[in-house]
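Q: What would this chain look like folded?
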Amino acid sequence: MNSTWRDAPLVALDLEGSGAQDGADEAILEVAVVPLRGGRPDRDGVYTTLVNPGRPVPRRPWLSPGLVDRVLSAAPSLVDIEPRLSAMVNGTFLVGHNVGVDWRLLHRRCPRLTPVGLLDTLRLARHLQLPGKRSLTALLASFNLTSRVTATAPGSQPHRALWDTVGTALLLETLIRHGWNDEPGLDELLATASVMLDEQPAATRPEQPSLLDL
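A: My prediction, written as structure tokens:
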């Protein structure tokens, strides 16, 4: 691949799920997809929605405020939104923070989705050996991006799908600028921060922390 990373079909994605302790029954509760145009989030192309899991979801400390049964029961089902997800995701590179975890859940629930690759901002941050915590919120704060994310994702907040997706999209460009003097090619970026589509994450939320710990 010789094209630059900015020319590549990149789509940032984040899911909010019921938690890995549900095992094979983990449900998607919220999803956000943000296309990147020229390496930056395309506000006009944003898609975000709550998802009706079809069952009650117990309140847990890591579930974001607002993801409650009363609200989720009025949301569309995953079957309803899958065509929209397919149109936005198929043939693209999915960008996420610890993207393997979200892809594992998304692929389990929507096996017909066919991105061509995964690009992980957490893996990129580790490669750059940045100091301090490497959670999404910590990295955004360290680069003074928090207020910009909030302005770009009005009505959302940290640990909700839209806010985290926009944050990931903005973080990607910032990390690349931090790590390269010149624009890297897509192949160089993938060699540094890609995750195989069939690669299992080393840790898939084994024990969920409180939001206060993130």
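Strands lie at 10-17, 28-37, 40-41, 47-50, 93-96, 117-120, 194-195.
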